Amino acid sequence: MNTLSKKNDLIDEFDIIAKFFTPLAKDAPGTFGLLEDAAILPTIDSHQEWVVTVESIVCNVHFLPNDPFELIARKALRVTLSDLAAMGAKPYGYTLTIALNRDLSDSCYLLEKVSHGLTIDQAEFGIHLIGGDSVSTDGPITLAITAFGITNKAKALRRSAAMPGQDLWISGTIGDGALGLQVAKGILSKQYSDLAGRYRLPQPRISLGCRLSEIAAAAIDVSDGLILDASHIANQSKCRLVIDGGALPISESVSRIIADHSEMFELILTGGDDYELLFTAEPEAIQKIKQAGYELDIPITRIGRVDSGEGVDVLDHNGIKLNLLIEPGWTHF
Amino acid sequence: MNTLSKKNDLIDEFDIIAKFFTPLAKDAPGTFGLLEDAAILPTIDSHQEWVVTVESIVCNVHFLPNDPFELIARKALRVTLSDLAAMGAKPYGYTLTIALNRDLSDSCYLLEKVSHGLTIDQAEFGIHLIGGDSVSTDGPITLAITAFGITNKAKALRRSAAMPGQDLWISGTIGDGALGLQVAKGILSKQYSDLAGRYRLPQPRISLGCRLSEIAAAAIDVSDGLILDASHIANQSKCRLVIDGGALPISESVSRIIADHSEMFELILTGGDDYELLFTAEPEAIQKIKQAGYELDIPITRIGRVDSGEGVDVLDHNGIKLNLLIEPGWTHF
Question: Which positions does UniProt annotate for Mg(2+) 4 binding (chains A, B) (predicted)?
């Protein structure tokens, strides 16, 4: 496409593709070295289907300007893979759009770091780049990723499948991402750098998501905050979710922080960025869930139940509904 | 995902989706009202395959700040559909990422226009929105689109399939987009507003692309400039393309402009933004090509040939190679 402004002759778009992105697509059939107008997805079995999801992240909004570029790229990819995990899909590949600031002094350095980060995560998750576009902008660096996964037909997990009587479960621990952001911003002590690491590099629960597609009813990943994400299940399933505040699984670091800063407790409920799977299942699924957690070495905790009604309630250890003073989670505008 | 900056409470991300984007997905199975973490692509016949392509456009780079938002959105969609056309794929749907400036005084107005523009083009091209993400940025408005099309298996057109002895063809007229940009910028007279219209709202050659998948060898859409795009076919096919400069199809408006401003002739060869299909075919395909052009009411012109060698040469009416003084086309950096 044509342009309205002068180009920077130092870097050529095709050199960028060849140097930094073609290597990421080399093992993906149908991508033709990223030299065609489009890529071809492989044929899947007739009992499978493609799942597609989109995420974008913007410098200053979703990451700090000093965050290492490798980690920014890996986080962008991982939050997208987390959406696939929440649908119970096995990831196959992704397209990447990168908008680079035209005044950036060393685009090549940045792109090398992005490409390196993506190379690491492609190996970790067994996926490939299948297409992309790079453009210049006078704004902040922005990455947009569309990820492709595969599920068995009609087995994708949905937010709308919760039913009264089901149990509510969560994987891993929550609050680490939200408090990790406080560490990354310097508000909390660097002694909790493990939490900042988790904020910067979430772990999408892909294997668990695939297992849950045969076990769970409704599912979502906790990206915007436990309560807000729970409310999506509640709203779309037309149910009430009741969370036992005392049952929430928290890490030792978060536990220590809360002991010193009780005002941060609500961040556990509302902060987001954990990328754990919140899901509902029939009570008789308990053995399969525990077995999956054991085999995958992921703690899975029952934190409540699905009831008739609407909304999300959090109960304290006396069974009394908590009055939360702050907003339930993050929305982008 | 969590954020690092204060949100604008006036608009809620979920309200945005419900109001402006869910209606665009209402007829697409597997999109669940855009309320899930991901969408499911429909199952296609076993003799078909999915084709995927990505484009992004940035305010101030790919469009002028005063361009109407409906047209910006439609252009973003159409340039992506043009990539599908160049592969010979029939478009099915697309995902959209929109980054909105946080200081925008009326995001709802903009989104309404974007949604309206996309509604028009969805109807025109028989496609659906299947997923998306909206984020805030402190930079310019940016749209990223991933489009999905379907081809018959192993029938996708490639840039690498040109062979010596084939003819080189182009659809429609060229130069309108490049000179249209000069009109839009006020450099050329408003009497040529038809060209500006073509710059702002290109016409992807979808029906022709589908027909060509059974007729043509190599193909590409002319987005970055005739010579640069021709060089992609030449490079990837390891051939030389010879273009007869006197045979280039130009519109009456472009013809008149060139008569007055001969210095603009080279923009026809290098300007881009035409979104016509440049393709090669065996000489015996001529009747099928003419028949396709007749049935689709699209002029298709033989503008040269494929030869052994490398690169792209443009010959004048005496068969003498032109020495082009300016660069062959647009690259983004």
Answer: 37, 53, 83
